User: Which sequence fits this backbone?
């Protein structure tokens, strides 16, 4: 985003393009009020009041009747003078209103530029800015709650607390470097080690939420796998509540993966229906489908193995080693007599035809996803991949600092590692001047946000 200039006044459509009852356009920057005055015919601009009037073309003809709201900086989302115009939601009318704003002195906003300005103007820290996109893209209540906690600053406050603690430790070490005659006595040395160990434990607790955050943001990759005709597509359709996959008694009907998302008690599950696995087939297309199945199994967060429990067991699914804890066996077609060989297995009896066992399957899936509840007890928001990388750097440097301190070597090396850890924590909340980092983050936003 290095080509964007914060001194410019920017404008963009902030609601999705298309046809709707209402659309909102946003203008922000030092000349926002002047741009609005050039295009708006109605009452005089008054901060924090919705004004009814018209957006007019350069020749004075009306383009649309609108509601205009003026937010004077710094009491606005971006921290700058900001105008929001609510107009009718047609494709043509919104285009004409935006064109008029650009003619009046604004320029088109880049992706995420409004939120970037909010960050640069101190309205949000970097974790809160990222949370804006998480709120927009949340697919379940649980994901939305996590995003809202981050938007409220929960993660930022946690990082600031850790950073302040680390600053205190570093200040103590640096004081000894500046005043070497004041030796670090054993009691003080023990206290410093304890403080670093406590900080390390809190860093590791945050890092432990990374997988939780990924599951909430991206969804749990749930692969439905098993032999042909086990009922994978039937179960997919039943879980979705509509006929998404073709169901046939002919083996090999599913040739490619089919993916849909469902909300399971607040968790987004990315259900992936796969081609049936069997020992041999001459069909090259089916072979390709089975190859994709194996690829999906290797990348799965959760594997749902589906077997026809009315038939004797055949070749069972070979699970990747990493998938063993995340595996659920479904004894499908439970409306038919259960074959004695399946008695005593830890499977969930389910019938896609009658719906029997779906509640029990849901409970089992939730228990596996949450590891019985313990995996999602963390009260703070879950970190994302960028946070994780920064915290890993901080953890590595802190461990190195503790090792240097324990070795009795020069405390300058301890201080160096502590400074690196402090820098890594600062990266989480944006206490850095790295333009490329900001560009990567905000480029993921939609135009107008």
Assistant:
């Amino acid at each position: 985003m290095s080509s964007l200039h914060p001194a410019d006044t920017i404008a963009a459509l902030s609601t999705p393009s298309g046809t709707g009852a209402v659309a909102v356009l946003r203008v922000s920057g030092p000349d926002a009020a002047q741009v609005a005055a050039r295009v708006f015919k109605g009452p005089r601009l008054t901060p924090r009041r919705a004004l009814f009037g018209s957006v007019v073309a350069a020749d004075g003809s009306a383009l649309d009747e609108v509601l205009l709201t003026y937010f004077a900086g710094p009491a606005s989302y971006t921290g700058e003078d900001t105008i929001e115009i609510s107009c009718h939601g047609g494709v043509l009318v919104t285009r004409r209103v935006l064109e008029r704003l650009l003619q009046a002195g604004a320029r088109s906003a880049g992706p995420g530029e409004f939120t970037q300005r909010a960050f640069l103007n101190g309205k949000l820290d970097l974790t809160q800015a990222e949370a804006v996109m998480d709120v927009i893209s949340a697919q379940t209540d649980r994901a939305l709650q996590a995003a809202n906690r981050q938007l409220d600053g929960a993660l930022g406050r946690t990082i600031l607390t850790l950073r302040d603690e680390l600053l205190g430790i570093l200040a103590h070490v640096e004081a000894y470097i500046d005043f070497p005659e004041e030796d670090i006595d054993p009691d003080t040395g023990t206290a410093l080690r304890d403080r670093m160990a406590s900080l390390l434990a809190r860093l590791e607790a945050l890092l432990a939420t990374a997988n939780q955050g990924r599951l909430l943001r991206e969804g749990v990759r749930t692969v439905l796998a098993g032999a042909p005709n086990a009922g994978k597509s039937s179960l997919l359709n039943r879980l979705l509540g509509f006929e998404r996959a073709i169901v046939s008694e002919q083996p090999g009907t599913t040739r490619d993966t089919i993916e849909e998302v469902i909300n399971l008690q607040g968790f987004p599950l990315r259900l992936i229906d796969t081609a049936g696995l069997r020992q041999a087939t001459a069909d090259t297309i089916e072979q390709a489908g089975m190859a994709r199945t194996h690829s999906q199994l290797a990348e799965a967060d959760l594997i749902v193995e589906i077997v026809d429990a009315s038939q004797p067991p055949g070749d069972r699914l070979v699970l990747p080693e990493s998938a063993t804890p995340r595996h659920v066996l479904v004894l499908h077609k439970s409306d038919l007599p259960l074959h004695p060989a399946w008695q005593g297995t830890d499977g969930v009896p389910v019938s896609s035809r009658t719906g029997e066992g779906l509640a029990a399957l849901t409970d089992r899936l939730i228990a596996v996803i949450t590891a019985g509840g313990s995996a999602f007890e963390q009260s703070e928001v879950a970190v994302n991949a960028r946070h994780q990388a920064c915290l890993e750097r901080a953890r590595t440097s802190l461990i190195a600092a503790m090792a240097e301190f324990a070795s009795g070597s020069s405390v300058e090396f301890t201080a160096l590692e502590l400074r690196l850890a402090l820098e890594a924590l600062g990266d989480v909340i944006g206490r850095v001047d790295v333009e490329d980092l900001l560009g990567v983050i905000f480029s993921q936003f939609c135009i107008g946000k």
Q: What stands out?
A: The radius of gyration is 29 Å.
